[in-house]
Every structure is written in structure tokens, then in C-alpha cells.
Amino acid sequence: MIENIIPVLGVSNLKKSVEFYLTKLSFQLRWGDPKTDRICSICRDDHYIMLQLQNPVKPSLIYLGLTNDELFNKCLKNNVKIVQPPTENTWAYEMQILDIDSNTIWMGTSPKNLEI
């Protein structure tokens, strides 16, 4: 039985990456020391992402299913690099951002208007 599935994102500087997720996206550090370890776990709303030092970094894409667009607003307010601004689609209201290592964070919530 699978207990959980946790995405692992490659990063070039663990300390700077943890700082990005904590300050820009309001994640929390769960375990690991970004100054000395090669991997750390961060979380938000009891959902986890692991950040791992890689050389070279192989950017990844992860999807965050959200209950509302609060995180969209936080990204816009904190000047996070936007790949796709908030966009209404028939399947979801979604947005894509890049972290400091060009990992894509694709976020979506229920469509705001079901009749597009």
C-alpha cells in the first residue's frame, strides 16, 4: 500500500531554494539543514516537496491542486517569475510559475466560471 508520493525537485543551492519556498510561497521547512545537507523537505498545508542538490539541475514540473487562488495572489504579490498568468479554462483556473532553478510549479483550482 502506498503511503504517499512526494515530488523531488533538483536545485543548485539548497539554502537559497528553501528560502525562496519559505518566503515567496509560505512553505515550512520540515526536515533537513539547508546549510549542510544535500536534501530537505518543505511543506504547505500538510503536503510535501523535497528539494535535492543536483549538478547539473534537471528542471522538473509539478502540479499543485488548490482549493482556492490564494497562492496565485501570493505569487503575484511576491514577484515570482510567471510562466502562465492566472488563466480560466474549462477544466481549471490555473497558473504556472518558475522557482529559482527553473522548476515549473503548475497550480490549479476549480474553474471560477464554468461557462467559458
Write a concise synopsis of the structure shown:
The protein contains two helices and eight strands, in the order E-H-E-E-E-E-H-E-E-E.
What are the SSEs and their pairings?
Layout: E1 8-11, H1 14-25, E2 28-31, E3 39-44, E4 47-53, E5 61-65, H2 70-77, E6 81-88, E7 93-98, E8 104-109
Parallel strand pairs: 1-4, 5-8
Antiparallel strand pairs: 2-3, 3-4, 6-7, 7-8
Can you give a write-up of this model?
- The structure is a single chain.
- The chain has 116 residues and is α/β, with parallel strands linked by helices.
- It has a single domain, classed as 2,3-Dihydroxybiphenyl 1,2-Dioxygenase, domain 1, CATH 3.10.180.10.
- Helices cover 17% and strands 40% of the residues.
- It has helices at 14-25, 70-77, and strands at residues 8-11, 28-31, 39-44, 47-53, 61-65, 81-88, 93-98, 104-109.
- The strands form 2 sheets. Strands 1-4-3-2 form a 4-stranded mixed beta sheet, with helices on one face. Strands 5-8-7-6 form a 4-stranded mixed beta sheet, covered by helices on one side.
- Strand 2 and strand 3 (39-44) form a beta hairpin.
- It is globular and about 45 Å long.
- The termini are far apart.
- 21% of the residues are buried.
- The model has no long low-confidence stretch (mean pLDDT 95).
